[in-house]
Design goal:
Helix content is 32%, strand content 18%. The protein is an alpha/beta fold. Helix 1 links the parallel strand 2 and strand 3. It is globular and about 70 Å long. Bound molecules: 3-acetylpyridine adenine dinucleotide (N01).
Length: 552
């Protein structure tokens, strides 16, 4: 890492702003940021497009929406009182429970008075002369701030594929990430679900129980493991809570920011086949994805090792799904296991044993058009009362690129990221001073427990802001060199794994025309945090600070 940190005197004095900080988004990241900034005595305003707080957990109200990280771990660690008093009813939180928890946090820490709901940030412009941000919203607000913090989320830009004829459809259509607040009753309806990622897999068993007939349009079969969800075991809850500080600390020293799983010690290839399959079977019974990936050391780095796990899962599918042709279609075969997001299910494969469910191979016979009555594929016409798009998001970069985000020096985020996102540590973008990104591209983000990643980023940013205030700094930015080196490191780490082999949203493959760049940092949460801490300890190495002009 270059020692480019410098500390130069500024040409301009610190200008008064409406707020110290504007926060874009009031999901888990925006709320915690607001809380921490209050602690620093900084003024902040959070703008949130939704009519409630919660971000992802506000929007994704589709049936069966549930977290795939266990609730005792997928919760804030910053307040011991909070984690002790909150009761999670199930092993994995479902969407209503998580949203209730987030609302509780907003109330308990009195955060709402600094949040403006129903307000989308449309533009954010950094003034190169005064070192301030001017932020505009769709409600007509124009405010200035010293800093802008993008807490706009990784999976917050829902994407409906550009199907011809969609406006002609006479039935109702929905997207998993824009689900109506009152829910949808599919009873007696002819329904299509398009997409079999995490969202599709969670909703399909529930919609199948309501619908007259459900057609599932699958383009890519996914690796899907049982969640093993269950009511919270009171003994497990009390033991966990008694040991919370140690457990939270332990999570900090893991690759995924999730504690409680002993790290693997052996290669899958060093174990006899029968023992290996017994180990996979135990993990299958236990439920969960991290636990499964932790069976052996090399499942994400060695194709041969990965194949042993993939074969185990394919055989499981063949054992559950009665119709052999459907079972084969559900067997993933075009990417190594775990290189697309592993999906956790509750009764997904069993759903295909129902008489009212049909799986359509949307790879072999792609959807060509939405029609007034339903849709047409390459070889058939279908009639539906409702179509559900579980087709994912413009992930990681979508939300920031939707904002007119630029500087008066002439940079725009759209141009800057045209060939793929570039950041320093996933936290800053060279050329965009006084701006921080929470869980941005180039950070572990979606490859870690998101709440752990959010708290780590926010803590780092807040410590940095405190440092800048103490030093009288008015402008703080990452250098181009530090950013280049970080981007290179992120790519090298990804290339040492099997991840880039998959056409996943991690590489933007789901968005036509999106540059193929591996966006998350897969070097592991612990390693990443150590790098961030080291950068801070070295006086924010790789960044330039410009001090306020003194008038003495
Ligand atoms: O979206 P996805 P998601 N024709 O992008 C298909 C998190 N999450 O909303 O794979 C036909 O994964 C597409 O096919 P393909 C989690 O991180 C977490 O399900 O591109 N099909 C794919 O099957 C997750 O990974 C939780 O070939 C089309 C699907 O749509 C992320 O959010 C729950 C198509 C999109 O899958 C996104 O998940 C939910 C087309 N034209 C979400 N276009 C939990 O915590 C796209 N598809 C459990």
């Amino acid at each position: 890492m270059p020692d480019t940190h410098n500390d130069s005197a500024s040409a301009g004095a610190m200008r008064e702003t409406d707020y110290d900080v504007v926060i874009v988004g009031a999901g888990l990241a925006g709320l915690y940021t607001l809380h921490r900034l209050r602690g620093l005595g900084m003024t902040a305003r959070a703008y949130e497009a939704g009519s409630g707080v919660g971000g992802t957990w506000f929007w994704n109200k589709y049936p069966g929406a549930r977290c795939d990280v266990e609730s005792l771990e997928y919760s804030y660690a910053f307040s011991d009182e909070l984690q002790q008093e909150w009761h999670w009813p199930e092993r994995y939180g479902n969407q209503p429970e998580i949203l209730e928890y987030i609302n509780h946090v907003a109330d308990r820490f009195d955060l709402r008075r600094d949040i403006q709901l129903n307000t989308r940030v449309t533009a954010a412009v950094f003034d190169d002369d005064t070192n301030t941000w001017t932020v505009e919203t769709d409600q007509g607000d124009t405010v200035t701030a010293r800093y802008c913090i993008m807490a706009s989320g990784n999976l917050s830009t829902p994407r409906v594929p550009d199907f011809k004829g969609i406006e002609s459809f006479k039935g109702k259509w929905y997207h998993s990430g824009l689900w109506p607040a009152g829910g949808v009753d599919f009873t007696g309806k002819r329904v299509a679900v398009i997409g079999t990622g995490s969202s599709g897999v969670q909703m399909i068993p529930i919609i199948a129980r309501q619908a007259k007939h459900l057609h599932v349009f699958q383009r890519t079969a996914n690796f899907i493991l049982p969640a093993g969800n269950a009511p919270m075991d009171p003994k497990r809850e009390s033991t966990h809570k008694a040991d919370y500080p140690a457990r939270r600390e332990a999570a900090q020293h893991t690759p995924f920011g999730i504690g409680g799983f002993p790290p693997p010690t052996q290669s899958a290839l060093d174990v006899p086949e029968a023992d290996r399959n017994a180990a996979y079977e135990a993990k299958w019974q236990e439920g969960g994805s991290i636990s499964f990936l932790y069976t052996y050391t090399d499942l994400l780095t060695n194709q041969e090792a990965n194949d042993t796990a993939a074969d185990f899962v394919r055989n499981k599918i063949r054992g559950i799904v009665k119709d052999a042709e459907t079972a084969e279609l559900l067997c993933p075969n075009d990417h190594p296991m775990g290189t697309k997001r592993l999906v956790l299910d509750t009764g997904y494969f069993e759903t295909y044993n129902r008489d009212n469910v049909t799986l359509v191979n949307a790879r072999k016979t792609p959807i060509e058009e939405i029609t007034p009555a339903g849709l047409r594929t390459a070889d058939a016409e279908y009639e539906f009362d409702a179509i559900v798009f579980a087709t994912g998001f413009d992930a990681i970069t979508g939300a920031m690129k939707e904002i007119d985000l630029r500087t008066t020096a002439g940079l725009t985020i759209q141009d800057n990221w045209e060939a793929g996102p570039r950041t320093y540590l996933g936290l800053m973008v060279a050329g965009f001073p006084n701006m921080f990104v929470i869980t941005g591209p180039g950070s572990p983000s979606v490859k870690a427990n998101m709440i752990v990643a959010i708290e780590q980023h926010t803590d780092w940013i807040v410590d940095c802001l405190q440092h800048l205030r103490e030093k009288g700094v008015s402008r703080f930015e990452a250098t181009k060199q530090a950013e280049d080196e970080w981007v290179q490191h992120v790519n090298e780490v990804a290339d040492s794994t099997l991840y880039p082999k998959a056409n996943s949203w991690y590489v933007g493959a789901n968005i036509p025309g999106k540059p193929r760049v591996f966006m998350p940092y897969v070097g592991g949460y612990e390693r990443y945090k150590a790098i961030c801490d080291d950068v801070a300890a070295k006086g924010y190495e790789g960044c330039v600070m410009t001090r306020e002009k003194t008038t003495a």
